[in-house]
Give the backbone structure.
Amino acid sequence: MTTKRMQHVHVVGGGLAGAEAAWQIANRGVPVTLHEMRPQRMTPAHKTEGLAELVCSNSFRSDDRETNAVGLLHEEMRRMGSLVMQAADANQVPAGGALAVDRDGFSAAVTHAIAANPRITVHREEIAALPPSDWDSVIIATGPLTSPGLAAGIRATSGEDALAFFDAIAPIVHRDSIDFDVAWFQSRYDKSGPAGSGADYVNCPLDRDQYAAFVDALIAGEKVSFHDWEAATPYFDGCLPIEVMAERGRETLRHGPMKPFGLTNPHQPAVKPYAVVQLRQDNRLGTLFNMVGFQTKLKHGEQMRVFRAIPGLERAEFVRLGGLHRNTFLNSPKLLDANLRLKAMPRLRFAGQITGCEGYVESAAIGLLAGRFAAAERLGEPPAPPPPTTAVGALLGHITGGHVETIDAGPRSFQPMNVNFGLFPPLSRSPSRGPDGERLRGSAKTLAKKRALTSRALDDLARWVGTSAQRPAAAE
Ligand SMILES: Cc1cc2nc3c(=O)[nH]c(=O)nc-3n(C[C@H](O)[C@H](O)[C@H](O)COP(=O)(O)OP(=O)(O)OC[C@H]3O[C@@H](n4cnc5c(N)ncnc54)[C@H](O)[C@@H]3O)c2cc1C
């Protein structure tokens, strides 16, 4: 098939994900039209008309590919010819071990590369409803501030509960970092439910004094305020931040997310806990547990201080801290297939933050995959997902199936996530000895485990990228 006769793939949204998707599609020899609404219609956060504008911080976080999951994601994207990473590397500013960029230079580099690519056409227009039915392959990458008309169209197609307009993020901890000499597994009243065993929750007990001190710390803790334009976003009672619940009355939490009923502490069966913090399994691998009902606007440093005062969580390693923001994201594990297509309308594919990933790099990474999948489809090739052992594969797995959905009161359980090692399948054998045969302990053991995970990821990525379907097309 020649480029002239091939129908365009349409990408809606020229942010981090959309620009990367368009670039990847064009690199496979497939023509693409990128629709970006700015400058005709701005979002409340964007200030320029540049593609891939960074709306807040100028940091892509750690660039350490050996012991940091986002650093590994950078490296994987570089190896897959990512435009976002090329532009970031070319516009670095000093930031220690982090990759930070000159935001204007970065956005200009992406905008120029897209404009100069003969296979990409840019239309500056809002797609204010579902894309026309004769667009047979569309990637929607309109981000957390998707314009209302398109959001309404998506919602009408995928259902009332399919699209959320704010996130309500509870902190997530590594199971390995919970102290099970204090905490224990048990479901309330030992109920097993459809997929449970009767011992599905991790429980952390508090006595009366600990509870009182915890409520005081929540109320006194420093909070992040809403942006002016966020304040108008309605959030309902089931999604109240935990500190707002605490402010409503000293016993409110004990009768809400911290109720102690139906639970017996096997470490001290005769002592009834005054309150209990429950954590629920978050991923199928069973490596991550979220703190049930603990969505919060506390500052990140405060969250670590206040939540590590909970018995059993003194050494908790947080893979995600809590938050509550204006956002737009799909219930992706339910709605999208393994190639990011809407099951109900497979001509629509989604990419970026709207799929439920979080962060500039993660959004671009999902754009990269969506672009490759769309190009493969257009070329008549099977779109092969990356191995789940890679950072990009682990992130895709979280979005399209790795999360364990639970139906409870309150916010729905699928919430945005940064890439982190908890999303990776565990190693078949964790390293226990160093290069000189010495027994590894503590942080040396943790670092060795991270190095083994990143080296496995890069080996598996090399094999995947080496298959013919992942190679770029020859230049025209
Ligand atoms: C206020 C705020 C601050 C954030 N700060 C950070 C941060 O510091 N660090 C971090 O890593 N992440 C941050 N994020 C989260 C997220 O990673 C970024 O928003 C990221 O830009 C998401 O990439 P994206 O491509 O999915 O969306 P975006 O980069 O937002 O791109 C979406 C594009 O779609 C366009 N668009 C929207 N609707 C339409 C339509 N109907 N038709 C055509 N075009 C449309 C928009 O104009 C925009 O250009 C922040 C998010 C917000 C909202």
